[in-house]
Write a structure and sequence with these properties.
Layout lengths: L1 H79 L2 E8 L6 H14 L9 E6 L8 E8 L2 H17 L20 E4 L3 H16 L4 E5 L2 E5 L7 E3 L2 H8 L5
Antiparallel strand pairs: 1-3, 1-4, 2-3, 5-6, 6-7
């Protein structure tokens, strides 16, 4: 009987030793898991820190890029500030500068503006498709006052003559007559922004969308204030409903 009890005690002690050993292994495994979790947590923190640093760097670069774009746009505007664009001008065979100057002086007579050759710094025919019969002219005046007077004179002439607005005959071109569209010269950036602004105005029932001194303006109705559009982001913000 004693031997049987001793055997049971030995067996129980063995079980306890095995359990203790198993527990020690589990504790060691848990320690390893804790270490691994700590390592992963440290790695994640490091990655988050790097991401935050990269975001700050990206934001800084974005600000610098925006500032650079604004400087380039300002420079481009200063280059074209005395220029106007005449669109849909018929192409001529063996065209010369003198022919273009003569056409502009003829036009100035129709719009009752005493324009002289010395008032025009440059006239350039813009590139177009080979099969196109018309293209645009860029006219650079000697100062911004002349440019403004020219645009105003064109607008007034068209207002007085709704059935005979400025066309190719006013520049001395032979038939067929083509309508001529005159506007101030815009930079490439402003041209795109003006297009987006016109699209926005049409979609959102704005009565007026125009340019003045290189600026793009919107006006909801005659009584509402004018809005100067400086960027595509600003247009998007106008479309975003305000949260009350």
């Amino acid at each position: 009987m004693v031997n049987v009890q001793n055997a049971r005690m030995d067996k129980l002690e063995n079980h306890l030793m095995e359990l203790k050993t198993s527990t020690s292994k589990i504790e060691a495994s848990n320690t390893d898991i804790d270490k691994s979790m700590t390592f992963l947590s440290d790695q994640l923190t490091s990655i988050e820190t790097k991401i935050t640093g990269l975001e700050k760097e990206r934001n800084s670069m974005s600000i610098k890029l925006t500032a650079l774009e604004e400087k380039v746009e300002s420079l481009d505007r200063s280059i074209v500030k005395t220029c106007v664009e005449l669109r849909n001008i018929p192409k001529q065979s063996k065209e010369t500068k003198k022919m273009l100057y003569t056409s502009l002086l003829k036009l100035s007579n129709y719009i009752e503006m005493d324009l002289q050759s010395s008032d025009i710094r440059e006239v350039l025919r813009q590139p177009s498709k080979k099969d196109s019969t018309t293209s645009s002219l860029t006219v650079e005046f000697t100062n911004t006052l002349l440019k403004s007077e020219f645009l105003t004179a064109i607008k007034e002439y068209n207002r007085r003559n709704p059935n005979n607005k400025i066309n190719s005959s006013h520049l001395g071109y032979e038939k067929p007559t083509t309508p001529i569209y005159v506007a101030e010269q815009l930079t490439a950036y402003s041209k795109r922004l003006f297009y987006l602004a016109r699209t926005y105005a049409k979609a959102n029932e704005y009565s007026y969308c125009w340019t003045s001194e290189g600026r793009i303006l919107l006006k909801k109705n005659p009584e509402s204030p004018s809005i100067v559009i400086r960027s595509e982001q600003q247009l998007n913000s106008l479309s975003t409903p305000k949260v009350i």
